[in-house]
Write a structure and sequence with these properties.
Chain lengths: 212, 212, 212, 212
DNA sequence: TATGAATGAGACTTCATTCAT
DNA sequence: GATGAATGAAGTCTCATTCAT
């Protein structure tokens, strides 16, 4: 029944023209907003299309199905994450003391969640429902984990690669959860949560870096 | 899986008779399984009913709507959590050294997630979608957080109440996420994740308890 | 499937005991109220039963099905109508002039509709849906029509029986509609409508009675 | 039955293309037939859709819900009524004597009910059940009443506007009921009822017009 | 290529009625 | 006889996706 048998991982057609790219962007923006506001299932593809002022038919020219929209959203987040960490990496992190290093990372991540509130909220909802997502999402986090692992190994060399991986995985997931939660808490608790997140990360890294 | 009693809150009728309680349990067991396997939205009330060998009409005699089923599931988890921590509390935790104390808590939590794999998986999916859930889930976690706060204050007195709260909140959420993730990882990474979780918690608590 | 194959026209079991009669009365009172308020279909038999504080099982011991409740309601109206007209008949109507005679009849009818606002409202909704009703309702109106025919023939003899019938039919239906409508109109229009109803009836009868 | 255009008010989408208009007409025709035959509540939207050979989804593209179908039916009747009375108005009614004038009006109305047997039958059933209907239906009758009031004031000037309104209201409702009933009576009684309706109207108007 | 009307499987839920206790 | 939990057919309406124009 589907004329398109290629289960593309992302989009059906790579938009090459300016207008198309704009449209895809519009669609993703609207989808993100609606997914956050109403939930993934309550958001209809028609609502996304009309919200983005794009004919539903056109939407399906860019995305093979509803899941692909979340997929593309995931890709977009991944790009952003990558971008942010490249920026972070450009600074002279190595010269910082551990506390400052931790601050930088946590603050950057917190900022990311503030800028992209859908990152967690959307993907949590879709967990296990959309098979295509698994790969993308894991990819997104994996990239982040890898970037952190590299940063850690640069900041404090000497551990095994597997250790950097494990530490990075643990931190990315724990920090991600805590900072995401901090957003939905009332002011005071939210801020305290950021402080605790830093303390958690700092203590953890100290255990690895300063135990000799 | 469990034939314990379930407190209402969204339930239409309190099942008083043995047969009814069994049915409700059946429904919840099947619902849990399907929610985990297919996701909340992909799971139909009819599938739950037929899976539990209960007429759909009967299902709706116990639960006003689909959301109430997740609600009841949440309550059931809450009961279990409470139960587990009461058991833990009964042991002489205070006499343990910090490392052993942490081990106990993490292992207990890990066991809980193994026994109730739906705890995280289901609730993450429904985040923000089901309003009635919010309260239940928050209540569930709040209870857990409070229990941990009390345990911590007993184990190592001297901090302000607000600090125990913050530490407990941080730990419950971080540990919850990490242990939940450990379940879906391959053997080796999964086990390593448990180790890291303990290390994370231990370092963090040491920072609070051993800094003088 | 039905253990009771006797499609009784009214009730399943004639309540002989005081408590039963009271219960039937309760049921009909509640049913009337709900039918008017929510409409026939939106009113559930369970709502009627619980409103009347009668177990649903008992309700079905008095009434074979939902339709029978409307049927019984119709019967009750019929009785009342009959009763009212017997009372009216007892007075010395013959001695009144035509205008006073008309006033009496219209006012009595208006009073009846005020006392039993369900009379029209319920039966209109059910038109054609409940076959058993047809007979009852027709019977109800037929009885009224016959009573008016007799009254008219007494008041002004000399016409053929068929004429009294036709006149009475015409009047009962026209007056019924107008007075029923007058109830749902705002004060002023409602009262005017009663006046016009009298005028309509008076003119019509004058055309028959005073044309010589 | 009629392929005329239908004004929105409860319609989801204004059908602009010929095919759509035809579909809407089809839906309304079938709905009318089923509502009359089985009653409003016993008629399912699926039955209407399949009867009209229109997918259920398409039906719901034109009508937001079941009630809107009755609403559209009401609008269609209103259009027809207006049309008929415009035609009647075009003739030289003023030159007729009262008896002929009454004949014209009653015959026209009788013809309308014959052509649109659903007019009364359907709306009586739904009285008070469908809120959106109230406005439409009242509008339909109101338009008819106003048209008659104008006709009366032209035919026999000299009364107050309020009187024409009251007379017209009274006549429209009374005549409507009687002629509608005449349709469901056996031949002889039906014809007699039309005669009586004319007599009723004539006497009533004579009382107003010839009383000096 | 772009559009948006059309499609129909299927979701959730209700409620008249029964019958085991 | 009295009770009310149990039943499941059936109703209304949604929405992801297609395809004729």
């Amino acid at each position: 029944m589907a004329t398109n048998s290629v289960k593309s991982l992302g989009m059906r057609r790579q938009p090459r023209q300016a207008r198309s790219q704009e449209r895809v962007s519009q669609i993703l923006d609207v989808a993100e907003r609606l997914f956050i506001a109403d939930g993934y299932n309550a958001t209809t593809t028609n609502a996304i299309a009309s919200g983005a002022k794009v004919p539903i038919g056109s939407l399906y020219q860019f995305f093979p199905d509803k899941g692909a929209i979340v997929g593309a959203l995931a890709m977009r987040y991944t790009e952003q994450l990558h971008h942010r960490f490249m920026e972070l990496d450009a600074t002279e992190m190595v010269s910082l003391n551990l506390s400052a290093y931790v601050d930088r990372i946590v603050d950057t991540t917190a900022q990311f969640f503030t800028d992209y509130p859908g990152y967690h909220s959307i993907f949590m909802q879709v967990q296990g429902t959309i098979s295509e997502l698994e790969e993308i999402e894991n990819a997104a986090d994996a990239r982040l984990i890898e970037a952190l692992a590299i940063s850690l190994s640069r900041y404090h060399p000497g551990l095994a690669a597997i250790d950097y991986e494990a530490i990075s995985f643990t931190l990315v997931k724990a920090i991600g959860t805590l900072l995401w939660l901090s957003l939905s808490q009332e002011q005071v608790l939210g801020e305290r949560l950021v402080v605790e997140t830093k303390r958690l990360m700092l203590s953890y890294l100290q255990g690895y870096f300063e135990s000799k």
